[in-house]
Amino acid sequence: MSGSRVRHFSYNWPEVPCIDISSLIKDFNSPEAVEAARKFSLAAKEIGFVSIKNHGISRELINNAEAAAKLFFSQSLAEKNRFDNRSQSNLDTGYFPAKLDGKEGYDILHKGIYWQSDEPISETVLPSETDCPGFTKTMNQYCAEVTKLTKILLHAISRANKYSTNDNESAFDSIMDMHKSTLRLNYYPARSTAHTKGGDGELLNCPEHYDSGLITILSQDEVGGLQVQRPSDKAWIDVKPDPDTIVINTGRAMEIISNGESLATLHRVKFTKDRERVSIPWFVAPNYDAQIFPFNVPAENWKYEKIEYMQWWNTVIRKDFPEYAKRSEG
Predict the structure, then answer these.
(1) Segment 186-195, tens digit of pLDDT
(2) For 221, how many CA atoms within 13 A lie in the half-sphere containing its CB?
């Protein structure tokens, strides 16, 4: 079995929609919260991207995370390479250096045992206070807050789509208790030109791609550049930066769980001449040994086979991400 990547549209979105989720945070069971979850789920299905406001993560914390990232990336390459954790782990975690187009990053892997806890989350070796003041404390705070938001959003998706037989329970809890989500710090240095181009010839900071996990929760700075290929007509539309919103998109694991109703959407980052840029995506991934399959769908109607998440990632996803393959080899 394999899913057919077909969407059905009730509306040709002129831009990425913005949903106020304050009701989901204040009283998840209120009528207003049920409606917010419905709107959020619909947008996620039809375009695959949605901005949310009143999400509960303070602007101060986001600013601090961006500042901590810039401070780390301003250090020498030798110092940053000390935090490439591949030597301590067979996982792609920690700092990774720039390649052709200059983007650097830092992947902070969740420990995977604190879905119901506020304990420090990182399985990745992080800089000490002497190495990079404020970095580790800020990233742990950010991960704690984004994990709380993740629980709310996955529960909202579960309820809106009736993935659980009980609206007060999230169908995702059983695959998230040992989850391996990753916070990534992306740093794009100021450059005069770029080498990577999109299918339309547009110069890019980050190539066109799909995300692989359940959802991605993204904070981007004021520089912008994020674009989404609108599924209805394949036009590239800007996801304009807004200090009051963060961006959510669905990944390819969610395609399986939704039986093809929520498809990952192609996206990219345009080149911004002579401007440095920071973005902070949180890639939500289930337990490595979680069985992923269409939730609350009779087996005879499944478009996807049941498979262990990490087996699927290694056999289906990794080959589409040569950057990961190259890093794991080196």
Answers:
(1) 999 999 999 8
(2) 18
Q: Which two tokens stand for residue 18?
A: 């913005």
Of 250, 156, 247, the C-alpha closest to 212 is 250
Where b means 16+ CB within 10 Å and e means fewer, 192-228 reads eebebebeeeeebbbebebbbbbbbbbbbbebbbbbb
Beta strand ranges found along the chain (DSSP E): 18-20, 49-53, 94-96, 104-109, 182-188, 204-209, 215-220, 226-229, 236-238, 245-250, 267-270, 277-284, 291-292, 307-308
Model-wide pTM > 0.70: yes
Report domain extents, the chain: 18-329
pLDDT over threshold 50, residue 326: no
DSSP string, 55-113: -S--HHHHHHHHHHHHHHHTS-HHHHHTTBGGGT-SS--EEE---TT--EEEEEEB-SS
Identify whether the C-beta of residue 283 lies closer than 8 Å to the C-beta of residue 184: yes
| Superfamily grouping for domain 18-329 | B-lactam Antibiotic, Isopenicillin N Synthase; Chain (2.60.120.330)
Crossing angle of helices 135-160 and 31-46, rounded to 10°: 100
Hey, how many other C-beta atoms are within 10 angstroms of the C-beta on 294? 23
Read off the pLDDT of residues 177-225 as tens digits, 9 standing for 90 and up: 888 899 999 999 999 999 899 999 999 999 999 999 999 999 999 999 9
What are the beta bridge partners of residue 95?
106
Distance CA(233)–CA(269), nearest Å, equals 19
Six token digits for residue 109: 């892997």
With contact defined as beta carbons under 8 Å apart, do 121 and 147 qualify?
yes
